[in-house]
Design a protein that fits this description.
The structure holds 2 protein chains of 2 kinds.
Chain A lengths: L1 H8 L4 E5 L5 E14 L6 H6 L4 H5 L1 E6 L4 E6 L4 E7 L6 E4 L5 E6 L4 E6 L2 E5 L4 E5 L3 E7 L4 E7 L2 E6 L10 E6 H5 L7 E3 L8 E4 L2 E6 L11 E8 L2 E7 L10 E3 L3 E6 L2 E8 L2 E8 L12 E3 L6 E6 L2 E6 L4 E5 L9 E7 L4 E6 L3 E7 L12 E8 L15 E4 L5 E6 L4 E6 L4 E7 L4 E7 L7 E4 L1
Parallel strand pairs in A: 10-37
Antiparallel strand pairs in A: 1-2, 3-4, 3-36, 4-5, 6-7, 7-8, 8-11, 9-10, 12-13, 13-14, 14-15, 16-17, 17-18, 18-19, 20-21, 21-22, 22-23, 24-25, 25-26, 26-27, 28-29, 29-30, 30-31, 32-33, 33-34, 34-35
Chain B lengths: L1 H16 L5 E8 L10 E4 L4 E4 L5 E7 L2 E8 L6 E7 L4 E7 L26 E5 H7 L4 H5 L5 E3 L9 E3 L7 E5 L2 E2 L21 E6 L3 H4 L6 E6 L10 E9 L4 E12 L2 E12 L26 E14 L2 E15 L22 H9 L3 E17 L5 E19 L2 E22 L2 E18 L7 E16 L2 E21 L23 E13 L2 E12 L2 E12 L3 H5 L1 E4 L4 E4 L3 E4 L2 E4 L7 E12 L4 E26 L16 E24 L4 E14 L12 E10 L2 E10 L15 E14 L2 E10 L23 E9 L1
The chains are: A mainly beta, B mainly beta.
Chain lengths: ~450, ~800
């Protein structure tokens, strides 16, 4: 019902007026309206303000539409709308900040990243943590460097890699942001300026930064080396370029001790021990065909394993043991992986494929040592759509957001315009919300380890 | 000053090159008593020549064309004068030119392409410069200029006051820095401070009345131009500095500027720092104080500001070109920005006498402050061309990046950003058929954004391109000035929102949901991509008639048009500083609520008549001015009688019948208005040390269909007695603001008040430096004064008695 209404309203109305004496013209084009839940204005907020704990601990979702420049913030677990914000252009991606308070609203082609405060955060009072809750808002803080592309968040930091632009000659760069930088509209967060453009990646490690290096004479936009940078005030200085190369580097991740980069010939692993970083190459196994390579990596602070994705093949990579093992995820008809990640605080690993099916693994990597039990234990496959995949709107994908606080993940279905909540523990869909728009990108915001002390704001 | 040296060298070069072609006029400049006037500036009108008379008052101008020539002579304490000659082939020698002494300070205005000063122009202008500026400089531009004739301050609690010219302000008064738009957000909200500093300025010029001819739409009410030497036009080393401490708000000020250079390079640097606490008042801040109100201070009016400017120029034989960079940082409390009252804390028992600690707590509870940053780049150039039809090319470019955030309880509520650039090129022609003048090309672009809770106006881009033409000539005793300008203004806003406003009158509560899409769950915010294009033009004709020696009459008739600003068109949201929910002229009210306006958006059109009578020689002088200004489609905020939520969610549902958390809804509507008024200034040099100045101004601002406009300045008269002899100067000034009872709907009358100010200065030299030590007292009788032109009339009176002590120096 909502959909038809929206389509009707989406008809463009053009008003053109001309008044006498050649002095003024007005052109007004009506665009798609923004849908707002009616109850929003009449007291739900009020309820939120006095909600103690339950709402806050489940977090919030930030979601965008496929062809529209707004983002919505939904409260969990209800998935009711808290606020809708207009941003400058249709977001190309939405990424959570280092502490999951802010959502980076990436508008890659506009060279712009805006930020939305999800309104849930935690303050460290040394002896205890206090949780705070406030209304979401659009932040004044923005990034405006050229082609913001790869974002990696870990341990309170968000590393943003700007690809630069081969056509205009704009060089690549990296910005490393803490949640405090975003909240204070800081201008002196550390930045790295590179000398040439590249489709690169960066991983922040406290005052260190690992970022890719591309030879400016290279024929590809992909980098082939990694540098270790050290922060000095608002910039990074190169300390070391690792001798171990990484041809056509794409994809990166980190865990407690290691930083991993995907290369055509294997995975570049960099181990950090204190201030010492050591690089090594874990070569592709015989499971790889000539055209296969790991181009996507996933990691988790607490997980000993990385997940490497090569097309539709998935590898479990144990960095410390330098082992790489093909994982049987029972791909069936799936030919691509559109969403992935460790979930339930590292207890689970999930894959969302292009058939709209969620694959769930238990992860036992923590007590892995010496046990025969496989690190990744296949648990279930959960098909989330029965629709004809050919009805997928152009450019749309099934998308996944993973809660950092509990065992829920959220999956969008752009064919049916639905948003599912999946309980990983029970491997079932617990609720589905009908959306009034075609969903595109989403991320989860909130407090990963909620305390008992809640403060309304 | 640069002109003197530069032109002298031009002249010298010219004489060497072709001495035979040069017609010359030589002679002497004297006063009424035949005494020579040294240091008078003699310029050839329509040419690039400026000569300074020597100790005997003698001058020689050369390189004149045969035929008619006109010389302009100016000197300090004398009225400016023009003399015309028929220059024969052999030239003229031993001419005697007499200047008439004047009690009126005459300083040329740089903001006009016509030669203009307080005594010479067809439109009234005034200039605050020199020691007078140093004594009156205040933290805000409005307070600096509030004693000028025809200028009032919209007093926003000492932190963001901006000038009102003849009852107009906001989008009708343009603030410029060296002739280029200040590029801030001060035109859209009275709590937004003007991004310009007065302590480092060399002069501040006020053009009263329409100046759209030179500046376009935003100047329909006038222009305030802050001039400094950031791009030096000479490189004589000189510096000025001042330190001051003021009692009423514990303001500490330090500022200074330095011009220097080598060879043909001029360099400039200035810097300032100000810091003040909330100011003291004799009574309660609120007109109707709460039970727990505390006397003695207006909370949240502390400010701290600092800034610097760097500039450099290349001094050429025929002009200069220079670049500057300025940075301004300012943090200031926003008084009266409390949302929905005082947090209802019952613990305050201190209403017998303001206990300080408690008082501070009270202030901290609802602290709202603004954090402003501006980066400003300017390029200025003047190039004189020695032959051909084109006499000079003047270029001005600016790029300004402005941002301020309003921070509530430590969190950013709203951020305003304005990125703007501007270019102005004037091409002046050589005197042609006795006409002097030129054309100007003017481009301005502003990318404006407001983000956050108080983002009442959507992001927009405004672009203006204009072509102007001005000419003037003398005919007998008459100076005739003509001008025309046409501009194209486009306002583009890709995301103008029209929410379903839950506005309601105060008896029925939001039963308007009869819309076609009302079934339960979902409302829609309609979104529009809006493009507006306006083509306003301005025409002006003026004359100055020197009907008797030492007297003249200035006459001006003009038609000016203004494109409404983006905020006036597109707003839809709560504007806390004006305590109103503002809805732009793009929308109209119907029985369901607010809808898109399908009527054309009209230009504001002003027809203005102005007459000025002046006496400017002898020991008395006066300037009397009357104006009549009829404005059609004057955009103003009309009270709709509705109320809407103010956007702060603390007070959501429960307060529906009280007004708490709600604001009256104002809709920008156009109506025809008439403004007319009188301005007068009389100066009498009683004897050598004593000088009496009397001045007054009065304005009426009426809606054509009956009713008055809000916040119109009251009748005001002032008397000042000045003393100046040897090293001492002093003044005592009384200003009476009368009761204003010509009020708009829903507006309250404001009582009159008298302010008494005084100052005394002592000059002495230390080495090469000239130092001045001064004491300055304001509001000496400690009056509680509420300013009718202020949005905060009922929340923040003027500061109480204040003493300032300062030292300034220059070399």
């Amino acid at each position: 019902m909502l959909q038809t209404k929206l389509t009707m309203l989406a008809v463009l109305i053009s008003v053109s007026l001309l008044s006498g004496c050649g002095d003024s013209t007005t052109t007004i084009i009506e665009k798609d309206p923004i849908a707002v839940d009616d109850d929003h204005d009449h007291g739900d907020d009020h309820d939120d303000e006095h909600d103690h704990g339950a709402e806050g601990s489940a977090g919030r979702l930030v979601i965008s539409a496929i062809d529209n420049d707004f983002v919505q913030v939904l409260t969990l677990p209800e998935k009711t709308e808290l606020e809708t914000f207009l941003v400058t252009a249709t977001p190309s991606a939405i990424v959570a900040s280092g502490d999951n308070r802010y959502a980076a609203i990436v508008q890659r082609n506009q060279d712009l990243v805006q930020f939305i405060d999800g309104g849930l955060w935690q303050e460290d009072h040394v002896d205890h943590m206090d949780d705070f809750q406030a209304a979401p808002r659009l932040m004044p803080f923005q990034l405006a460097q050229v082609r913001p592309t790869h974002f990696s968040a870990a341990d309170g930091q968000l590393a943003v890699f700007f690809d630069g632009n081969a056509t205009t000659g704009a060089a690549a760069g990296v910005a490393v942001l803490t949640d405090a930088d975003i909240g204070e509209d800081s201008s002196n967060y550390p930045q790295l300026s590179l000398t040439t453009h590249q489709h690169g990646a960066a991983q922040a490690r406290g005052e260190y930064l690992l970022s890719t290096i591309r030879d400016e004479n290279s024929s590809t936009t992909l980098p082939d080396q990694v540098g270790l940078y050290h922060q000095h005030d608002d910039h990074f200085d190169l300390e070391e370029t690792f001798a171990v190369s990484c041809p056509n580097l794409h994809g990166s991740a980190q865990n407690h001790d290691f930083i991993a980069f995907g290369c055509t010939d294997g995975v570049l692993l960099i181990e950090q021990v204190g201030d010492t970083f050591t690089a090594s190459k874990l070569a592709n196994t015989e499971d790889f065909t000539d055209t296969m390579r790991i181009g996507t990596l996933a990691g988790d602070h607490s997980a000993g394993h990385f997940i490497g994705i090569a097309g539709s093949a998935v590898f479990a990579i144990h960095a410390e043991d330098a082992e790489m093992e093909l994982l049987d995820w029972q791909a069936d008809a799936a030919t691509a992986i559109w969403g992935y990640g460790f979930a339930e605080q590292g207890e689970k690993f999930v894959l969302l494929d292009n058939t709209g099916t969620l694959t769930i693994f238990n992860y036992h990597g923590h007590e892995h040592a010496g046990e025969a039990e496989p690190a990744f234990e296949f648990v279930a496959k959960l098909p989330l759509t029965a629709a004809d995949l050919a009805d997928m709107p152009a450019g749309a994908r099934f998308q996944l957001a993973i809660s950092a606080a509990d065992d829920k993940v959220y999956v969008t279905d752009p064919i049916a315009n639905q948003l599912h909540t999946v309980d990983l523990h029970d491997a079932e869909v617990v609720s589905t919300k009908q959306l009034s728009f075609t969903p595109h990108r989403l991320t989860w915001l909130g407090v990963a380890n909620p305390s008992d002390d809640h403060h309304d704001h | 000053m640069f002109k003197k040296t530069m032109i002298a060298s031009v002249v010298a070069a010219g004489m060497l090159a072709s001495p035979l072609m040069a017609e010359t006029i030589s002679g002497v400049v004297t006063d009424e008593n035949g005494q020579p006037v040294a240091g008078a500036e003699v310029s050839v009108i329509g040419e690039n020549q400026l000569i300074v008379t020597d100790a005997n008052g003698r001058f020689t101008v050369t390189n004149l064309r045969t035929g008619e020539a006109e010389l302009h002579i100016e000197a300090r304490r004398f009225g400016h004068r023009n003399f015309r000659f028929d220059v024969p082939a052999q030239g003229l020698s031993d001419v005697s030119l007499t200047l008439l002494s004047s009690t009126i300070e005459v300083i040329d205005v740089t903001a006009s392409p016509f030669h203009a000063s307080a005594t010479e122009s067809s439109l009234p202008v005034s200039v605050l410069a020199g020691d007078a500026l140093k004594m009156r400089q205040a933290a805000t531009l409005g307070d600096t200029l509030k004693n000028e004739v025809g200028v009032h301050s919209n007093f926003y609690g000492n932190v963001a006051s901006s000038p009102i010219i003849r009852g107009l302000d906001g989008p009708r008064v343009l603030i410029t820095q060296n002739g280029l738009d200040a590029g801030d957000a001060s035109r859209i909200g009275p709590d937004h401070s003007v991004a310009s500093e007065t302590s480092t300025a060399t002069q501040i010029e006020v053009l009263r009345g329409p100046a759209t001819l030179f500046y376009g739409s935003g100047a329909i009410g006038g222009v305030v131009n802050v001039v400094d030497q950031r791009i030096p036009t000479d490189n004589t080393t000189r510096a000025e500095w001042m330190v001051q401490r003021e009692s009423v708000n514990d303001e500490k000020l330090a500022s200074g500027s330095l011009v220097s250079g080598v060879d043909n390079i001029g360099l400039y640097i200035d810097g300032f720092w100000r810091d003040n606490d909330s100011y003291r008042i004799p009574g309660f801040a609120e007109a109707q104080p709460d039970d727990d109100a505390v006397k003695g201070r207006v909370d949240n009016t502390a400010a701290t500001a600092k800034g610097f400017t760097l500039g450099g120029s290349v001094l050429l034989d025929n002009g200069f070109i220079g670049l500057s960079y300025g940075r301004l940082d300012r943090e200031y409390g926003i008084p009266g920005h409390s949302h929905g009252g005082h947090g209802g804390d019952d613990e305050h028992e201190g209403h017998d006498h303001g206990d300080h600690d408690e008082h501070e707590e009270h202030g901290a509870e609802e602290e709202v402050y603004a954090d402003l940053t501006q980066n400003r780049y300017q390029l200025l150039s003047e190039l004189n061309i020695n032959s051909g039809f084109i006499r000079a090319i003047n270029t001005k470019l600016a790029f300004t990046d402005y941002q301020h955030s309003e921070i509530e309880n430590g969190e950013i509520g709203t951020t305003f950003k304005n990125r703007s650039h501007e270019a102005r090129i004037e091409v002046l022609h050589r005197t042609f058929q006795d006409w002097r003048g030129g054309i100007s090309l003017h481009y301005k672009f502003s990318d404006f954004e407001a983000l956050g809770e108080e983002a009442f106006t959507p992001p927009s881009e405004t672009e203006m391109l204009a072509l102007g033409w001005v000419e003037e000539r003398h005919i007998g005793d008459w100076l005739l000035q003509l001008g025309a300008r046409v501009e194209r203004v486009t306002v583009e806003a890709p995301n103008v929102v029209l929410p379903e406003l839950a506005a309601h009158g105060h008896d029925e509560h939001g039963a308007e949901d009869e819309h076609d899409h009302g079934h339960g769950g979902t409302e829609y915010i309609r979104v529009f991509d809006v493009k507006q294009r306006f083509t306003p033009y301005s025409l002006s004709a003026g004359a100055v008639w020197d009907f008797a020696a030492g007297y003249n009459i200035g006459l001006s008739a003009s038609h000016s048009q203004r494109a409404p600003s983006a905020a006036e068109l597109l707003s839809f949201g709560p504007h806390i500083s004006t305590a109103s929910y503002e809805i732009g002229a793009l929308f109209v009210q119907d029985e369901h609520g607010f809808e898109l306006n399908t009527q054309p958006i009209e230009l504001e059109k002003s027809n203005n008549l102005d007459i000025t009578l002046r006496k400017f020689s002898g020991n008395t002088g006066f300037v009397l001015n009357a104006f009549y200004n009829r404005i059609d489609n004057y955009y103003y905020q009309k009270n709709t009688g509705l109320f809407a939520e103010d956007g702060h969610e603390e007070h959501a549902a429960e307060a529906a019948d009280e007004h708490e958390g709600e604001m009256p809804v104002y809709l920008f509507a156009a109506a025809d208005v008439t403004l007319h008024g009188l301005e007068a200034q009389y100066v009498w040099q009683i004897n050598d040390p004593f000088k009496l100045t009397l001045q007054g101004d009065y304005i009426r601002a009426r809606l054509q269909d009956g009713g008055d406009l809000p916040r119109t300045p009251p009748l005001r008269i002032a008397a000042e007695i000045g003393y100046e002899q040897d090293a001492i100067s002093a003044d005592l000034r009384a200003t009476r603001y009368f009761k204003q009872n010509k009020v708009a709907e829903m507006e309250q009358a404001t009582a009159g008040y008298t302010l008494l100010d005084a100052s005394v200065s002592y000059r002495f030299d230390v080495g090469l430096q000239e130092l001045t030590f001064y004491l300055k007292g304001q509001n000496l009788t400690n009056q509680t004064a509420r300013v009718h032109t202020s949005f905060l009339k009922d929340l923040a009176p003027l500061p109480g008695r204040s003493l300032a002590v300062g030292l300034r120096g220059r070399f």
